């Protein structure tokens, strides 16, 4: 399929201990330890939206807070392709995958500020803090390369 990439932003949110927030997809509730059940907050950008603004909007929509500060921006846009069985189905059927701008952010709040229940149709049903190095093992196979890059390139912010 000759489909475009969807522009997207992602948040690697570090707490004071240097751990990273991952959230469990609500559409995969039995994926406690399975790859792909857990992911970083991320979401599509509106046309013309500044990625640094979009990342805070997405965090607020998905995890209920924007109480964070950007500590780094990944220099590259990172892309992934959907596997064949998801083409034409995932991402509204309009995209071949996503082109993502990733940010490392420091969470400035308290854990109680993270709220997954504010959206009437939440994307996530659970969250936890994990070591950055665990990210690739939590990702679905088609996102694993990006999570490898993030774990390597944002390692200096981890605890």
TrEMBL record:
Where does motif Nudix box map?
43-64
One Pfam family, short name: NUDIX
What cofactor does this one take? Answer: a divalent metal cation; Mg(2+)
Tell me the GO molecular function terms: bis(5'-adenosyl)-pentaphosphatase activity; guanosine-3',5'-bis(diphosphate) 3'-diphosphatase activity
Q: What is its EC number?
A: 3.6.1.-
Q: Which UniProt keywords apply?
A: Hydrolase
An example GO biological process term is: ribose phosphate metabolic process
Q: Which residues form the Nudix hydrolase domain?
A: 4-152
Q: Which NCBIfam families match?
A: PRK00714.1-5
Concerning its family, UniProt says: Belongs to the Nudix hydrolase family. RppH subfamily.
What's this chain's function? Accelerates the degradation of transcripts by removing pyrophosphate from the 5'-end of triphosphorylated RNA, leading to a more labile monophosphorylated state that can stimulate subsequent ribonuclease cleavage.
Q: What is the protein's name according to its record?
A: RNA pyrophosphohydrolase
What is the gene called?
A: rppH
């Amino acid at each position: 399929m000759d489909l475009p990439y969807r522009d997207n932003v992602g948040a690697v949110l570090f707490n004071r201990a240097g751990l990273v927030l991952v959230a469990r997809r609500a559409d995969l509730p039995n994926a406690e330890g399975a790859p792909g059940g857990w992911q970083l907050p991320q979401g599509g950008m509106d046309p013309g939206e500044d990625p640094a603004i979009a990342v805070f909007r997405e965090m607020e929509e998905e995890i209920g807070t924007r109480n964070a500060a950007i500590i780094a921006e990944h220099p590259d846009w990172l892309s992934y392709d959907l596997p064949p069985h998801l083409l034409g189905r995932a991402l509204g059927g309009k995209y071949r995958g996503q082109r993502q701008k990733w940010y490392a952010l420091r969470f400035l709040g308290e854990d109680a500020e993270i709220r997954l229940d504010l959206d009437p149709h939440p994307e996530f049903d659970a969250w936890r803090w994990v070591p950055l190095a665990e990210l690739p093992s939590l990702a679905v196979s088609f996102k694993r390369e990006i999570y490898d890059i993030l774990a390597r390139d944002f390692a200096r912010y981890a605890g």
